[in-house]
Structures are given as C-alpha cells and as structure tokens.
Fold these 2 entries.
Entry 1:
Amino acid sequence: MIKYEVDSYGNKFWYLDDKLHRVDGPAIEYTNGGKEWYLNGEELTEEEHHIRTLPTVKTASSKPMFEVSEIRENSHDGSATLVIDMSPEMSQIVLTKGVNAILRDMLDEIEGGQDE
C-alpha cells in the first residue's frame, strides 16, 4: 500500500513497502521546489522515471507487446539505451515500423494527453 507522509517542514514523501516510490510523480517534493524521483527505492532522474513509467502496449489478449526492461546510460555522450523485451506479435510490427518510431508515437500520445 502507498504511504504518504509530510514532515514538520512540509516536505512530502511517498512510500511503497517502506521504500521511496511513486509512479505518477516525484517520490519526494521539497517545500523549496526540489524533487526526487524513485521507483521501489531506486533513485532515478526525471527522464528515467518518465521512461520507466510509460504505459505498456498490450495486444488484444492483454499480453504485453513490449516493456522497457532496462535503461543503460551511455557515459561517453550522456544518451541512454533502452533495452526492450518484445512479444512475438510486436516483433512483426517492429520490422515494418522500427522501435524508435513506435516509442516516438507513444511519447507523442502521452504528451498530447497532458495538454487536455
């Protein structure tokens, strides 16, 4: 169960199983405006958090088509590599469209929904 706490300074904290955790925003919000992002006790950058909490695309049978299983930071240029686990159904789509285009479409859909 998610536990929400506010300390004596007004800082806000979200926990799951006694680990800092929040899917829909930062797990720590400081009164000075600072934020820290966590999933299951693991500290992440805001960008990593956003990627890891992307919705999972599912087939009509409700089986996940793909999930981001790992994010590897490329220290030489600051970019990141996504490791994606795909179902057999999704591999056919990837061959015709490409993973980058699929992820870009998903991000566009998510960002478009935030404007409403």
Entry 2:
Amino acid sequence: MAGESRTGALKDTDQGSQPVPRTTQPLTREAFAAFGQVLMAVGDEAQRQEFAATLRNFRPQATLNMAFLLSKPSNPPWQIHALERHPYSSQSFVPVQGTRYLVAVCPSSAEGEPELDRLVIFVADGDQAVTYHPNVWHAPHAVLDGPGKFIMLRWDLGNAEDTELRSVDPPLTLDLTP
C-alpha cells in the first residue's frame, strides 16, 4: 500500500487472546494531551474556535492529504491487529457524521517501538475530533457503534515514509465494557 513503510510484528506474549485488562476512559483534552489534541464544542452556545489544533508537518515538500472515510464497525470482541505512526506529520480525524470511535495510543520505547504495556484506550464521542502528534503510535481508525463519516488530514509524500506500521501478534482483544 502506498505511503506505508516497514512492517514488523509486535509480540504480546502476556495477553494471548484474552481481553486486555485495561480500563477504557472517555476522551478528554487533559487525558489525551501527551498524545495529541481533542477538539470539541464546549457548551451549547454557537462558537468558533480559531486555530483550535496545532497541525505539524516536518517535510516542506509534503502535500496536505484530505481524505474522506466511511467507516463501518466490526462486531465485538474488538481487537487491535496493528499500530501505526506518522513520523513527519500530525494526523487528524474530524467527524462529519460521527459515531463513537476507538482512540488507542501508546508512547515509543527508546528504540522507537510501541510500548504495548503502556497502551491507553479512549472512547471518543461522535462529536469529538482528534489530532495525533507526529510520531505517536495509535491503532488504525475504528468506529464502535454504527457507520461514521470522517475527514482525515495528514501531510504525505505518497511513499514509505508517510506511515510506519507494526502488526500486533497475537492481536490485543479489548474489553470495552464501561
């Protein structure tokens, strides 16, 4: 697939196929701040938030890629089969016709690999947008309830440097019960 770089396998030997014993949490600006930004309306009044997100591009020759996504949910149990990151660009998902969606993130090790034992799992409401900072490992976009329409923004060159992927083997099975 264009725009994806080397794919390695991450082993999660402690989890097997059992649900991950991690608590999901609502997506808030404060809880997500280390990984990126959350955009959402505050209150019921009409509002416009200027410069609401800090979008980053570390390759001047890259082009802004605005993609439209129609995401369909999978059935439980939900699993994470891969993690991805974008070393040179932030990535934003903006709901057009939103539904709850998964936002699973983790920091990088000193070697630059995802730290699965520090995975944090958020559940975003259908009216929240997220922007991942460059270099943040995250699960691919996945809706949880019904179909959702989203705009994705990221700076790309259309080559292997755009996205790094790591498969998770075995997949992480998530228990998303509140």
